[in-house]
Design goal:
Largest sheet: 5 strands, parallel
Distance between the termini: 38 Å
Order of helices and strands: EHEHHEHEEEHHE
Strand order of the largest sheet: 2-3-6-1-7
Number of strands: 7
Strand content: 15-25%
Structural class: alpha/beta
Shape: globular
Helix content: 25-40%
Length: 171
Amino acid sequence: FCLSRGLGDVYKRQVLIRGETGSGKERVARCLHDFSERADKPFVALNCAAIPEHLFESELFGHESGAFTGAQSKRIGRIEHADGGTLFLDEVESLPLAQQVKLLRVLQEKTLERLGSNRSIRVDLRVISAVKPDLLDEVRAGRFREDLLYRLNVATLQLSLIHISEPTRQA
């Protein structure tokens, strides 16, 4: 399934994959990771639409013990877990605005801070994002940050669904 030629250095860049449900966005993201220099490092997938908003910060950035009620131990977030490898953010348009700001900082500074900590942790990762809607429309509607779109959209892959119809039978 993976295309290994003709994509230039897209295997090294941040990539935004656009396509409808069922078009294979995660499969393409995995392929881009597997053919990259990061193939022997983690591929960490996160469906942004599946995480309740109040858990996003802890899920992405992790937390320290005691950072909030119920945080009994330190937790490594998805970004830190993907260090050296690839973080795949499916349905990135669902990322809350507050977390968009923090993700932008990670991409710019290559550091993160766990919830409840003031210590910066260096991270080296590549982000591949997948979306269904046009993110420019989301920017215009105030639901997505333009500066984050700029960071995520270094290269774009547009996927299409392939519709296979059954042959018609003649009576």
